[in-house]
Amino acid sequence: xxxxxxxxxxxxxxxxxxxxxxxxxxxxxxxxxxxxxxxxxxxxxxxxxxxxxxxxxxxxxxxxxxxxxxxxxxxxxxxxxxxxxxxxxxxxxxxxxxxxxxxxxxxxxxxxxxxxxxxxxx
Length: 122
Hints:
Blueprint: H1 3-24, E1 31-33, E2 39-45, H2 48-63, E3 68-77, H3 83-100, E4 113-121
Antiparallel strand pairs: 1-2, 2-4, 3-4
């Protein structure tokens, strides 16, 4: 293989990887239609705000040009420690890590928070 073909192959491979990773970066939550034009979805993430945003993004995709009206919502925390203890441990480890220059361990997982919403499109 000559240099031009190798360069073209590498460029195509990198471009494909970038395109596929861009598609993967926006998590999608399944949307279930219930009675009376009510929909349900759950956003899952490592923080409450991200979980809420994931659920709202799925709702907006479902409603398209219509407005999302949230009928009911519920946040659940599923971390390994309770929410308050997890924050204190995270802050303490960040301080210790900055003192010793070791960084801090990340105790959060991608599914620590669930934000379940029931919504309709109007």
